[in-house]
Structure formats: C-alpha cells, structure tokens
Amino acid sequence: MTAALRGLLAAAAAMGVAELAAGVLGRASSSPLLAVGAGFIDLTPVWLKDFAIRHFGSDDKTVLLLGLGAGITVAALVIGLLSRFRLAWGLIGLGALGAAGVVAALTRPVAEPVDAVPSAIGALAGMTALALLVRGTRPSSIAPPEARGTATPDDGGATEQPERRPEDAGVDRRRVLLTGAGVIGVAAAGGVSGRVLLRRGDVSSVRAKLRLPRAASPARPVPPEAQIRVPGMTPFRTPNRDFYRVDTALTLPQVEPRDWTLRIHGMVARPVEMSFDDLLREALIERDITLSCVSNQVGGDLAGNARWLGAPLAPLLRRAGIASGADQILSRSSDGMTLSTPIETILDGRDALLAVGMNGEPLPVAHGFPARMVVPGLYGYVSATKWVVDLKVTRFATDHAYWTRRGYAERAPIKTFSRIDVPKPLATVNAGRVAVAGTAWAQHRGVDAVEWQVDDGPWRQARLAPVPGLDTWRQWIAEWDAAPGSHTLRCRATDGTGRTQPEHRTPPFPDGATGWHSVVVTVT
Ligand SMILES: Nc1nc2c(c(=O)[nH]1)N[C@H]1C(S)=C(S)[C@@H](COP(=O)(O)O)O[C@H]1N2
Ligand SMILES: [Mo]
C-alpha cells in the first residue's frame, strides 16, 4: 500500500469516527468538518465573502464544503507521505488536524465542552488506523515465510504482482488488505451512521404538520396588474423555493416549535419569555414585504418578495417596557448569530414582524423556522434574524452584532434600486417594438418613478405597475422602438422622498451597493 493511500485511509477513519461521535451527541456544530467550515465563514474577510456571494450566491456553502474537502484530502496525502519517513510525523499531523477541529468546535458561539469530543476521538481513531497500516506494510518478522509476498488466488494478489515495488517486498499483503478494508469500513460506517443520527433532530416533518392561525389583520390584496406579463419577467411574489438565501449557517438550525422560546430582556422593565404557542396567540398580521441583502450588487437578485404572517414586534417590546436610552435590539438566533436593529425602526409604526409564516405556509427551515424577524426597509443583516430566540434591548455603544463588528453599517436602510429584467444581458432581439421591463425597490419609502434610457439618449418615464404598499418592490415597463445595432439600456429609480438613484457605482460594503443598472443588447 502506498504511503499516500495510508494517509487518506487514516484521515477517512478520523472523519468517520468524528461524525459518528457528533451524531451520538446530536450536535452538528461539534462535527470537525462543520465546525472548521463555520470557523472559516467567521474568519472570511468581507471582500472574499462578497466574492463568494457574487459568484456562488446561495451555493456558497456547498463551494466552501467542497474546498474544505479538498484541503483535508491534501493534508491527508501529506500525512501519509510523512508516515513513510516516520510514523510519528504522520501521527503528529493527524493530531494537528484533530486539534484544529477541537479549537473550531470550542469557539462556536453555542459551544459546550463536550463539543471537543468528536474531533479528539476522531484524531485518536485516525492515529490508530495509521499505526496499524504502517505496521502492516513494514516487512514483518513474525509472519511465516510462505505468507510473505506470496499471492494466493483469493486475495487478488496475482494480478497486482507486477505493480509491486521493491520497498513493498516481504509485505504481508493479506494483513494489509484486511487492515485497509477494516479502516475503510470504520470510516464509512461512522460517517453514514453519524449523518443518520444527526438527522434525528430534523424538524421538517414537525413543520409539515404545523397549522398556523389566520391573520387578525390580513394583507391588502395585491392588484393583479402588479405582475407585468412579459416573458422572462420576475414574479411579483417570490415562491419559497426560489427565495434567495443568505446566512452564516453551514447546517440549517433545527428548532422544534415545542422547545422554542423567545426571551426579551436587557434594558426592559419586565423581561419576557414566550413560547411558540404564546406567539401564535398574538393578534397576527399578514403583510407583503420585500427582503433584500446588503451584498446584492447592481443588477443582482439577492432580493425576494413574500407574504409574511407574524406578530407585530412593537407591542411585544412595549409590553416588556423599554428603558430610556435604549437604541438597539440585539437579536440572536439559535445558532448564536447576532444582528442589531435600530430600535426606532421597530417602533416607528412600520410593520416590523416576528414572522412565523411565509407565503401561506410555516417558514421554511432555510428561512428561519419556526420564527424570524422581518423589518420593512432595512437590509437583512440588520433586521431579518432567522431562527430567532433572543431579543436584547440595549445600546449601540454596548453591544455589537456579527456584521457590524466586521465594519458594516449599524444603520442600513435599503438603498433605492432598479434593475432591467428583460431583455436579458447580451440578448438578441428583433428590431421594432421591444418590451423593456424590470423591478425597482426602495422599501418603506416606495418607488415613485423609474426612468430608462437607450445609449446616451434622453431619459424617459417607464410605466409603473401598481403595488399594495410602500414595503414591496415595484415592477415597471416601457416600450422601445428598437433600431438594428448594439445598444445599451439603462434604468434609474426615484423613491418616495424624491431622491433619484445615483449613477456612481459603489460596492456593497459597508452599507449597500449603488449605481445604475445597464444591459447591452443586439438588435437585428
Ligand atoms: N440567523 C441568521 N439570520 C439571518 C442571517 C444569518 O446569517 N443568520 N443573515 C441575514 C441576512 S444577511 C439576510 S440578507 C437575510 C436573508 O434572509 P433569507 O435567507 O430568508 O432570504 O437573513 C438575515 N438573517
Ligand atoms: Mo444579507
């Protein structure tokens, strides 16, 4: 057996046993793969996060896990090669991997001391496997002479004989194969059963059975003309399965409604702790609200519009009795993520919600089941806490949330944004009448106008579709008499305060991208 293969097998055994231990504990965040991945997410610099979201969007986590898998494979190969010179070096390498797992698991915001166990016993398993494989490969003095280097028909050795290298001479092949097979078996059985055990906590069946009450205050009807009917146009209401997802959760938090509580505490007269049933007994309201992400680039699609069902947040906070001087709500999710929201944006009369429903069903697990915050007009990172379990009434001077600690703005109203959805970039269209249509948003200020332009011609008013209120995006359409050639189409929106979207492009950091969207098309 080659040294590199030994390294791979030993690392596989380590990972498999660690997954099994994480499964037995029922703590996904203690799995070394997930803990190290989560640590990576936390350490990712802002530019790299923007790069990942820009290029991989909601697949950013899959890409991260694949990269991590590649990194572990390389480390395993190196460990194997080291063990060829000295077993101790290989063991030290495995120990270092295990230590990285332990540190990662213990530095998660929700860490408990037991979270060190999976990485630690995984490393021990990997070391044992490596030692056994190395020992089996060495020329053995105890094996009887006829067993050495003699292929018997049943071990397949005969066909492999020509590939043997001199260093492998005298090897007890049967023992090596058995040890290797054993190690693979341990790795596979551990990995698979660990995954199965971790699925115990899956809440999707609980969610499927959950019935939500009706809204005491239903949403205003959406005018049918809110949807512009042109092929390729964005749907006015985003179906849950198509709704963008942005979060730091490498594995989706599984929160049982039965176990869910919300604590409201901090600078309050009467701290509150409410159950999910308590929440459902509130007078629920249903509203159409468009969510958008600060990482959205000009022309990007990190925004979605849904009908949310939930309890208004302002009365809940007022019942707790907000102390004077408080200016921030620090919300925390079950996986330890923190978001800060300016308190005045929750109390100023807008429909800030503790949402339980999305488009007529319980929140999808990926979108915060069983409860999340939604505050119209604010970027998601300062308002839309998914899997929320804790609201601390505090001050910006005292507490800092995950993204604001990384330099993002504390106050981040959504910037006025407009986008051309059809024709698509680099499309070829026939000369004559062409529909130019798109989506604009300026939540809680509303979109009052969208203008469009061909090449450097005059700006013209687009026709705006009706909307149910100030908190959703708004579609627009114009008719273009297109002449043959290559043309650039541009758009810009004006919000309800009369301010027009600036031409100048700025990146998402630290409080949202700006700039006009443009699309180049060929007319034939
Ligand atoms: N618990 C938790 N809530 C979170 C986040 C997160 O990382 N963790 N990300 C926020 C960000 S940056 C955005 S844009 C919205 C996205 O909500 P969605 O995934 O439902 O579209 O959730 C917000 N809520
Ligand atoms: Mo976001």
Description of the structure:
The longest helix is centred in the N-terminal third of the chain and has 26 residues, at 60-85. The protein is 33% helix and 22% strand. The chain has a 5-stranded mixed beta sheet with strand order 2-1-10-5-6. It contains 13 helices and 19 strands. The chain is an alpha+beta fold. Helix 2 packs across helix 4, helix 2 (32-43) crosses helix 5 (87-106) and helix 4 runs antiparallel to helix 5 (87-106). A hairpin with a 4-residue loop joins strand 5 and strand 6 (338-342). The protein starts with a helix and ends with a strand. The chain has 3 domains: 3-140 and 171-201, no CATH class; 224-406, Oxidoreductase, molybdopterin-binding domain (Sulfite Oxidase, Chain A, domain 2, Alpha-Beta Complex), CATH 3.90.420.10; 417-523, Immunoglobulin-like (Sandwich), CATH 2.60.40.
